[in-house]
User: Which sequence fits this backbone?
């Protein structure tokens, strides 16, 4: 990943914030572009080595920041 720091679960008080910050950095760096679909929750949990609930909280954090939107049945997309 160019320009995006490696994921470090120890970098935040809460792991879900570390995941959300890492995905936000990927968006800011242009690695994930508007309209791109994020991997499914289970795939993200496996990729980051965290629990499914952690990914759900991270995704909610990204929605709260206005970086992604979730469409039922279709997935979560970069805004």
Assistant:
């Amino acid at each position: 990943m160019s320009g995006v720091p490696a994921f470090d679960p120890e970098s935040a008080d809460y792991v879900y914030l570390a995941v959300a910050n890492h995905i936000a950095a990927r968006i800011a760096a242009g690695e994930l572009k508007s309209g791109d679909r994020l991997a499914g929750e289970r795939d993200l949990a496996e990729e980051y080595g965290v629990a499914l609930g952690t990914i759900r909280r991270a995704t909610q954090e990204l929605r709260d920041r206005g970086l992604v939107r979730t469409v039922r049945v279709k997935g979560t997309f970069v805004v």
Q: What stands out?
A: The helical segments are 15-28, 41-48, 52-64. The longest strand covers residues 68-71. The first helix runs from residue 15 to 28.
